[in-house]
């Protein structure tokens, strides 16, 4: 059960580009794995075994440690009906929960609306990275998007408190609402004011942070550190989001080295984040979701793997009932979907489980339907 003394918090790490599920959760117990992957595969003796059938990529040691502690739920064969191999369309589907239409609102944007309907906290949702993921976008929902927390703020390059105060006053008047200008201008005005407030608050997070954990200097490691800093600062942030560098997991060529490096860094970043908030006694209300837009083809292309379906996702947390959920899709040729893994469970079931069993929200209007929940929370 989530602690009743703290509001539940959701952290999301998006693996951009389509992570290779087959070489992440390796079906080493099936001889077809080695038949289908003559060039792009992990040696059986190096695989970090979870069962007599599947195991983690050899470079996922830190995540394997958390799994052994019962803190990682592995969602096998996750996806959605009629999979799409386009990065943009597939990610849109995951972000909006609209597989059959073009969605306009993100599932986390809707969640923020439910948690903070009166927009009392401009930092209920925070994204780390450039731009704003569609998952967090919804009309009237303020979400701060941070490129670098250490330098984040408004007009931070101006020296002197009086000068900065004057500049901020001018900035606030520029963004203050103007009557009679219409809904669009009113919305932009409010967005500007929210950004102004959020920037000044977020810029204080690194000042109050100290930790014995040393994160990697890669992008994911630094953003996970930023997420820990904001969580520990006590701003009341409920949704924290970040993305691996754009299309970094799109391993069409040179996959063995690239994928090994990606999971070495990503697995370490996840474990560092969890260790950090645990050492600060701030882990009991946090759940981390790790997902990607699709898996990759079952057969390698000689150097890498191409866009596919039937992926894998992870849910990490102190109160997670760890283990394997769903079934690993069949590798039999007759059971493949145009050379891809079939999905065995809809991603909206994982969302619904997190929303209802962790965040305490009604999932149906957020994920656009009723989906069977899992027992990992």
What does this structure look like?
This protein is α/β, with parallel strands linked by helices. The chain has helices spanning 31-36, 61-68, 87-96, 107-115, 161-175, 183-202, 219-233, 255-279, 347-358, 364-367; strands spanning 9-15, 25-26, 48-49, 55-56, 72-79, 125-128, 143-146, 239-243, 286-292, 311-317, 323-325, 345-346. Strands 1, 5, 6, 7, 8, 9, 10, 11 and 12 form a 9-stranded mixed beta sheet that branches. It has a 3-stranded antiparallel beta sheet with strand order 2-4-3, with no helix packed on it. A hairpin with a 5-residue loop joins strand 3 (48-49) and strand 4. The longest helix is centred in the last third of the chain and has 25 residues, at 255-279.
**What is the CATH topology classification name of the largest domain?**
Alkaline Phosphatase, subunit A
Q: Give the rounded overall mean pLDDT.
A: 89
How large a portion of the residues is in β-strands, by DSSP E?
Answer: 5-15%
Classify the oligomer. single chain
Q: What's the main sheet like? A: 9 strands, mixed
What is the highest CATH level, the class of the largest domain? Alpha Beta
Structural class: alpha/beta
The general outline is globular
Following the backbone from N to C, one meets helices and strands in this order, namely EEHEEHEHHEEHHHEHEEEEHH
The total tally of domains equals 2
Any idea what the CATH architecture of the largest domain is?
Answer: 3-Layer(aba) Sandwich
State the helical fraction. Answer: 25-40%
Uncertain residue segments: 154-158, 174-185
Counted by DSSP, the helix tally is: 10
Q: Radius of gyration, rounded?
A: 21 Å
Q: In whole angstroms, how far apart are the ends?
A: 8 Å
Q: Got a strand count?
A: 12
